[in-house]
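Researcher: We're reviewing a set of sequences before deciding which ones to prioritize for further study. For each one, I'd like a predicted 3D structure that I can look through quickly. This is Sulfite exporter TauE/SafE family protein. If possible, include the structure in token form so it fits the rest of the review sheet.
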Amino acid sequence: MDVTALFLTGAGTGLLAGGTTCAAVQLGLLTGAVTGARPTGPPPPGCAASPARAGTDARAVVTFLSAKLVAHVLLGASLGLAGGAVQPGPRVRGVLLAAAALSLALFALDLLGFRPARRLLRRDRHRGAPEATRGGWRRAAGLGAATVVVPCGLTLSAELLAVTSRSAVGGAAVMGGFVLGTAPLFGAVGVTVGRVLAVVRGRAAVLLAAGLLAAAGWTLLSGLRLGGWLPERGGTATAAGSARFVRTDTSGTQLVTVWALDRGYRPSRVTARAGVHTVLVLRTDGTRGHTRAFTIPQRGEDVILPEHGETRIDLGVPGAGRMRFVCASGHYPGAITFR
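Model: Here's the predicted structure for Sulfite exporter TauE/SafE family protein, in token form for your review sheet.
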């Protein structure tokens, strides 16, 4: 695939599907970029959403997206040259998602007037205006660059394409195209966040803070799933219920079939025999969501599935126990129980 085709593939993926998934994962970083660049004092009466503040929000979003673009282009070039070895594993991404959840919680506490959070997030408030503004832009740029280590499932798909390009230019093209494809939605979300923050007062601020705390909890849960750190819980499928998804081929290998759908895996719980050679068969049919990036946390393994087709993962000879799996963004979990 030539450079132009790689760029267009990345841009198309970002524009058509990547914006929503990445915005969900990286909302905390984007919110931090906007709030960090805003003036800390109250707006003049009757001017809650002044043009100056709106311009500040837009510049913060542009700074954030510019840094994100540069970071992803550099990552793409590295992946094209060095391959998947430079990608963070599932547990590392789990830690980063937990950190993103913490940032969302801090922004929510800041909105509620919690003084320690306000002091932590607005440490530039006592500086001169030019110095504080420069600090806000540096923060927006830093948070934009940090998105490279908190990828969504479709970002991982683009990264795999960068790896397979085997070229620094090709890898940079696909990752740059992907970020540019997601930019319109990110820009709209960022400016909207700024406008909401400019006008919310009283109960509205409480509602927004509650929404941010809910998003923080969801992000933290995703990170814990991705790292494999959630306590074992939940039921297991019966052998009878799993029979249609588990079979043995003529060589004696146990085949466990799981379908990756746009909004989860079917079955999400399956029971199989322990102590026999087992192959996990992952099937897709027009799948375009997070679930195409399939992760087995305890193996530290990510597998990018095609939109249509079948992918096989050799699990060796599993002992008795539960092998958990999840999409690479930590949103859709499942497990195979070996008995």
